[in-house]
TrEMBL record:
Oxidoreductase as UniProt keyword: yes
Any GO MF annotation of the entry: oxidoreductase activity, acting on the CH-CH group of donors, NAD or NADP as acceptor
Gene: nemA
EC number from the UniProt entry: 1.3.1.-
Boundaries of every NADH:flavin oxidoreductase/NADH oxidase N-terminal domain copy: 3-345
Pfam families xref list: Oxidored_FMN (PF00724)
UniProt xrefs under InterPro entries: Aldolase_TIM, OxRdtase_FMN_N, Oye-like
Cofactor: FMN
Membership in a protein family: Belongs to the NADH:flavin oxidoreductase/NADH oxidase family.
Protein name: N-ethylmaleimide reductase
The keyword Oxidoreductase is assigned to this record: yes
Amino acid sequence: MTSLFDPLKIGDIQLANRIVMAPLTRNRSPGAVPNTLNAAYYEQRASAGLLITEATAISHQGQGYADVPGLYKPEALAGWKQVTDAVHKAGGKIVVQMWHVGRISHDTLQPDGGKPVAPSAIRAKSKTYLINADGSGSFAETSEPRALEKDELPGIIEDYRRAARAAVDAGFDGVEIHAANGYLLDQFLRSGSNERTDEYGGSIENRARLLFQVVDAITNEIGAGRTAIRISPVTPANDAFDPNPQPLFTYVVEGLAKYDLSYIHIIEGATGGARDHQQGDTPFDYAALRAAYHKAGGKAAWMVNNGYNRELAIDAVEEGKADLVAFGKLFIANPDLVERLKNDTVLNPPDQATFYGGGAKGYTDYPVLENVA
Ligand SMILES: C=C(C(=O)O)c1ccccc1
């Protein structure tokens, strides 16, 4: 029987186990440049089968929060090289989550103080994170976006391609395309945020067009075996909404089946919230989604996330419901989570007050178990 603690090869990437650190925004990279503290944080957690970095902006336009890292400045790529070197020296594997926030941004964070961009000029009922004049951080309402012109989309696709190449050149083992949680690619997918009347709006095929153009560009640049994607069929995060998620995301995974991707990452339910959250008239059927992916010929590893504990994770892999399980808050508080899960030891509780912004406190100062029984 397959175990959560068994090794696994996902595309071109060999993992020591099936326990994954989920992408976690921490707002500790001023100027969008990863630093030595970030390197220490990821190195501490390198025993994970796979580390997925916090969401990382592919461009200045794709930057939606203060002090999150990017992949678009030379100094940022040098910073990421420190991180990947430290993780690899510790025996770990790491991919970067590539992010364009779309409308989940603020004028003050955008190039020349411009409006954030989106499929349509529909403001999200959501917040973003800014640094105040006194240096403190706080969440603020997102700004009114402008609708992207169709002729701007090739430039965004090129930004994804360029960022993927830069990521591999900075030592990452691969990339995860952020198509979840109400950010740009998810904004195009969901009818609640996409009212376009051109070939990028209306039908499911049209709303998924940009996503597949991005997947094409990245897999052609770095190979499908180093390319993964994250989706969140029913999350309400960042005001994301679609009344018919099952046919929408069935179409998406059937299209993804055409690529030999490394993995597909599924957020089950509301991100960081109820696993049984529902959008539309019927509960989302995750088993049917995976079956549709396999029926379409999909072979990528299936990664699940959101509210998993030790028992749920072990069962999911042993029962063949998932190949990998991603943990967020548990990895924030337990750098040695793999050993703790393996030995069913006590877990440090996460400190919510230090999730976003700040320094080492609540970031690199969580204790490890010196001698695991
Ligand atoms: C990148 C995020 C996501 O995917 O939800 C995020 C951003 C800010 C705070 C928490 C999470």
